[in-house]
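Example 9 (inverse folding). The structure is encoded as follows.
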């Protein structure tokens, strides 16, 4: 938990402040406002936002401790509003809302008035008052409300390969890196590299890791990979 908290603070200080303010689902989250901070960018150039600090100390009614994350699910082509299960690691989060209407070009999530943020009643049991709207929620800040909010379509796709990997992992589409860090799934820093787009991971034990590449413009790109 402490390692994850330190990492979150480091990320928030290295990136320009991009925040989202949320208030809603009062029956489960209580009558309080939460602030999401952009913490990183995923492999699809989508921003990731989290309520910081992640320290298991944000009490709220129906879920006990409220720690939230907004991120893009590329497999299902939708934005997701996730609530942590109480460990601060988002390993098995609860899906609270999702929005898949006209959002794929944007780097940031839609507002509560664009598309439909669908309440996941399987988790909420209908206690959130239905889909997010301006009448039952606040969702402001670094959100978009138009399909004109698009990424630069000329930007190359950033990816790592091979995955799974035995010895050398390569990063393509990102030529302005300042550093590469590798963390285990407990948030512990395992390896730091500043030598280029190829990283030797042969010394790592088998398992799942997070590779975090920092670019010269302070953008952070994260990738999960499997070491064979």
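The amino acid assigned to each position is listed next.
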């Amino acid at each position: 938990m402490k390692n994850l908290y330190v990492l979150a603070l480091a990320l928030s200080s290295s990136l320009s402040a991009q925040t989202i303010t949320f208030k809603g689902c009062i029956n489960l989250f209580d009558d309080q406002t939460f602030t999401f901070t952009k913490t990183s960018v995923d492999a699809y150039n989508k921003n990731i936002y989290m309520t910081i600090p992640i320290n298991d100390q944000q009490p709220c009614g129906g879920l006990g401790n409220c720690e939230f994350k907004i991120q893009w699910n590329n497999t299902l082509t939708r934005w997701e509003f996730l609530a942590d299960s109480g460990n601060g690691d988002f390993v098995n989060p609860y899906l609270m809302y999702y929005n898949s209407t006209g959002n794929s070009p944007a780097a940031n999530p839609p507002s509560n008035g664009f598309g439909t943020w669908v309440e996941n009643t399987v988790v909420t049991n209908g206690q959130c008052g239905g889909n997010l709207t301006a009448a039952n929620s606040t969702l402001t800040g670094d959100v978009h409300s138009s399909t004109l909010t698009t990424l630069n379509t000329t930007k190359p796709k950033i990816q790592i390969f091979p995955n799974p990997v035995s010895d050398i992992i390569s990063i393509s589409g990102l030529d302005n890196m300042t550093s590469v860090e590798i963390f285990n799934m407990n948030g512990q820093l395992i390896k730091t590299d500043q030598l280029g787009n190829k990283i030797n991971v042969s010394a790592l034990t088998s398992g799942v890791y997070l590779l975090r590449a920092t670019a010269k413009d302070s953008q952070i790109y994260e990738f999960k990979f499997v070491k064979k």
